[in-house]
Amino acid sequence: MIDLIRDYGRAFLYSDGFQTTGLAITLWLLVVSIGLGFCLSVPLAVARTARRAWLRLPVALFTYVFRGTPLYVQLLLLYTGLYSVQIVRDTEALNAFFRDGMNCTLLAFTLNTCAYTTEIFAGAIRATPHGEIEAGLSYGMSPFTLYRRVILPSALRRALPYYSNEVILMLHATTVAFTATVPDILKIARDANSATYMTFGAFGIAALLYALISFTLVWLFRRAERRWLSYLQPARPR
């Protein structure tokens, strides 16, 4: 039994193609896509709440498309669909980029989480108390300074519980990476199952790894919420 568990562990945590572990690939996909998606979503959320239609409508279309279609379909379109376009093959840089499954996976994950995060942050911006905005304007702040010092810090804090759900869902969504032959946890599990025909053991270890990562992320976000959202908690009676 111990030997079997050790063999499963090696099958899950080692990949010959990338000379790294399936767990590391999953975490890499999650961290990079979430980081890039966050950086893109902040300015897009500001544009999403803008009064000017030429700023607001393109962002609304982007979020509608990527939230309205499955991530699996988006990955297939980027990995196999765009590469079949002649102009992509004829352009050296595009050909090199879309030929790599990891690049296509990261692009699909980044655009998908960016769309959801943009709507989360845009909703938090709209929910900013009007009194905070008036206070900033009374100090003579410009629109840029008002967003930088009042609206965005307040909105990002209040969006933290909803954003934590998006990160957890993005972790679960990384399971489609095997479509682009990326050796994440699930692909290693599928390979282990094909080699040993021990389905429960192979996918059971995969489920355990995903659960451990999820619990760690939940714990980290709960600590962040206690630190940055403590001012929203009701005062305790003395």
From TrEMBL:
Single Gene Ontology MF annotation: transmembrane transporter activity
Gene Ontology CC terms: ATP-binding cassette (ABC) transporter complex
GO term, biological process aspect, one: amino acid transport
Gene3D superfamilies named in the record: MetI-like (1.10.3720.10)
Membrane topology value: Multi-pass membrane protein
InterPro entries on file: AA_ABC_Transporter_Permease, AA_ABC_transptr_permease_3TM, MetI-like, MetI-like_sf
Taxonomy, superkingdom: Bacteria
Annotated transmembrane regions: 23-46, 167-186, 198-221
Subcellular location: Cell inner membrane; Cell membrane
ABC transmembrane type-1 domain: residues covered: 23-221
Subunit structure: The HisPMQJ complex is composed of two ATP-binding proteins (HisP), two transmembrane proteins (HisM and HisQ) and a solute-binding protein (HisJ). The HisPMQ-ArgT complex is composed of two ATP-binding proteins (HisP), two transmembrane proteins (HisM and HisQ) and a solute-binding protein (ArgT).
Similarity remark: Belongs to the binding-protein-dependent transport system permease family. HisMQ subfamily.
Protein name as catalogued: Histidine/lysine/arginine/ornithine transport system permease protein HisM
